[in-house]
Structures are given as structure tokens and as C-alpha cells.
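Human: Here is a favour to ask of a fellow structure person. Comparing notes only helps if you start from a blank page. I am asking you to supply a protein in sequence and C-alpha cell form. Write it directly below this note and I will take it from there.

Assistant:
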Amino acid sequence: MEETEIEELKKNKDNKKYVIEKVSKQGKLLEFVSDELRDDEEVVKMALENDGEAMEFASDRLKDNKDVMLLAINNAPWTACYASDRLKNDRDVIMASVKEYGQTLYFASEDLRDDYDIVKAAVSNKGIIIKFASFRLRDNEEIEKIAVGQNKTAFHYISQRLKNDEEIKGL
């Protein structure tokens, strides 16, 4: 992004047609548009279709919109960190992200950190993330085998009972 392009966008930050044209080519330009247009679903979706990372600049209202959040995650899985608290407790949203970006488990609600399928998907992608799973699932043999098999350091975060398991020690 050139400085002149940003300055021009700032001058036209309320011009929806102009903004759509720009954010559809460079999604992160959403940062420089008016609050009103950061809250406009059409504008934000155009930005997200170009670059899911533009979710950072969307309004809080749209960060609580499941369809908008899933669009961002589809293009940049790590953007689940911008989801509202309500969506951080939404199984579909978190699953869409952890399948590609296991670190999202860190942002998931406490309930979803205790969801077998969510945690399994997360550790399959990033074993070390087991440290953010519930204690109950840190004591699950299948999940621990996946986590330790994916990243040996995950061994430090499993239950004491499983640390003594010879099969897991051998992974």
C-alpha cells in the first residue's frame, strides 16, 4: 500500500462505492474506512473475500456475525481470534478454524476446550496446543497419542497417568 493510496482512501472513507472498489482488491484497506462502513456487511464481506485478515478491522457487531466470521476463517483460519465471545463458544466457528489452525483452541470457550472433536482436530494440526485443552481431555489416550505424535513437547501437558503409559512414552 502506498501512502498516497491510503490518503486517498481516507478522503473517501465514507464513499461506499469507492471503498468497495478498493477493499475488494486489498482487503486490509478496511482499516482506513469510516466506522460506518466497517459495520457494513457488504463492504466487510468484499474485504474478507480478498483477505480474511481484514476481519481485524470489522466492527464488533460483524465480529459477532457467524457468516461473516466463517468467511474470514475460510480465507485466514487464525482470524477466529477476532470472534466475539459468543462465537468463540460456537462449535461450527471454532471447528472451521482449528482444522487448519490448531492454535485457535487458545481462544475457544472453556466448553469447547472440553469438546472431544474440537480438541482432536486442534491437536491433529498442532500437538502442543493440548496445553489449552480441558484436564479431562488431557487424560484421553487417543487425543494424547495424536498430540504427542504430532509434537513430542505435548508430552509435558498430558495427565500424570498418561505420562506413565509405556505406549505414549514410546511415541
Summary: The mean pLDDT is 95. The two ends are 47 Å apart (CA to CA).
